TrEMBL record:
It comes from the Bacteria. It comes from Pseudoalteromonas lipolytica. The keyword Signal applies. Transmembrane segments: none annotated. Residues 23-160, 275-356 form the DUF4785 domain. InterPro entries: DUF4785_C (IPR048295), DUF4785_N (IPR031979). This is DUF4785 domain-containing protein. Pfam families: DUF4785_1st, DUF4785_3rd. Residues 1-21 form the signal peptide. Keywords: Signal.
């Protein structure tokens, strides 16, 4: 009876301490958690497609399409535009108005085409149409005789599934704040893409287009990035490449997301106190650079009978922090262990800006 009463008192003490620790939220996992998976620092992707935006005027005049294999698909889709706060949607496209010609204005065959209704059945609800060329390895010009508005915008999307000429991109995923050069390796097979073969665009998480250029395997920003973290999404680099492979023009597009990161929270040494009855408290002093809601996840360890380090319980705590503060982490352990008690597998999270930081042990 006395032992049960002691456990109840210890539990009340933990709850009371948690309530007084700036209304922090506490969660103990039912089982000890393994260390977090290593964070992604580099991102690699391949592309066998390209896309480009064209105006209604260009589409009526003729737009070159680059196709190098029989297995391909060309999609043309109307894209809404914004002017003076209003949204203007282009006219739906009429498939029977499209034609393809070569450099000498000679008609080229088209086949396996899909009208707007068929595209909708395939999951494309944007009013697009699709077609294939009946002849490849030619300088094909795609055009329409439909009466489109000159200023309307359309997306031409060419996919060559299974192509050997895949664009490979390798970029940094986690970019340090104030960093203005980001590694961006672009290659096609053994061929490294040249600077003058790349058109690079940079978009902020809010969709704003920013100044950027491609220089010697790097994306170079004109100005430092302003948005920190991923609460509103990622920054995105879009590369459009036009190069020659065995004398043929190959076009590829690829989008590479990344996060602008900064170490917004740091911690000092944690102090662990044994309360008795397998109850423990860890106090973790922290400092933040920006106000927000932060969290810490850590596992309590002690010494086993043979002196080995034993993982006892994993707890996560979150609270609002404005400058200097500390987390109070209560642990309720099911098995006995000996001192010294320490925290391992520590992970700090800036929940406001959606950033994670692994704390070195």
């Amino acid at each position: 009876m006395i032992n049960n009463l002691s456990k109840i008192c210890a539990a009340i003490l933990l709850v009371s301490s948690a309530a007084n620790a700036n209304e922090q939220t506490v969660y103990q996992f039912p089982e000890v958690q393994s260390a977090s998976v290593a964070q992604l620092h580099m991102l690699e992707k391949d592309s066998v497609e390209y896309w480009q935006r064209v105006s209604g005027k260009e589409l009526k005049r003729g737009v070159p399409v680059f196709v190098n294999q029989a297995e391909h698909f060309i999609r043309i889709a109307p894209k809404a535009r914004f002017e003076s706060g209003e949204v203007f949607k282009p006219r739906d496209l009429q498939l029977d108005k499209f034609s393809v010609s070569d450099a000498n204005a000679q008609q080229l065959p088209m086949h396996a085409i899909a009208a707007r209704e068929q595209m909708q059945n395939a999951g494309f609800t944007d009013g697009s149409v699709g077609l294939k060329l009946g002849q490849v390895n030619a300088k094909a010009m795609l055009k329409t005789s439909q009466a489109l508005n000159d200023n309307d915008t359309y997306l031409v999307h060419v996919n060559e599934k299974g192509s050997r000429n895949a664009l490979h991109a390798k970029t940094q995923f986690k970019v340090n704040d104030q960093q203005q050069r980001v590694g961006m390796q672009l290659s096609m097979g053994q061929k490294r893409v040249k600077d003058n073969e790349v058109q690079l665009s940079l978009y902020s998480p809010e969709g704003e287009q920013l100044d950027v250029r491609y220089e010697n395997g790097e994306a170079v920003f004109t100005y430092p990035l302003e948005t920190l973290g991923a609460a509103n999404g990622y920054y995105e680099l879009e590369a459009n490449v036009e190069t020659k492979v065995n004398g043929q023009t190959v076009k590829r597009s690829i989008k590479m997301p990344f996060v602008n990161s900064s170490q917004t929270i740091t911690m000092d040494n944690a102090k662990v106190t044994a309360l008795g009855n397998n109850q423990y408290q860890a106090w973790v002093p922290v400092q933040v650079t920006d106000s927000g809601r932060y969290a810490i996840r850590a596992t309590l360890t002690g010494k086993g009978d043979k002196g080995e380090r034993v993982k006892l319980a994993t707890v996560e705590v979150a609270k609002q922090i404005d400058n200097y503060d500390q987390f109070m982490m209560p642990f309720s352990v099911s098995k006995a262990a000996k001192a010294p008690f320490e925290l391992v597998d520590i992970e700090l999270t800036d929940q406001t800006r959606m950033l994670k930081f692994a704390q070195g042990q």
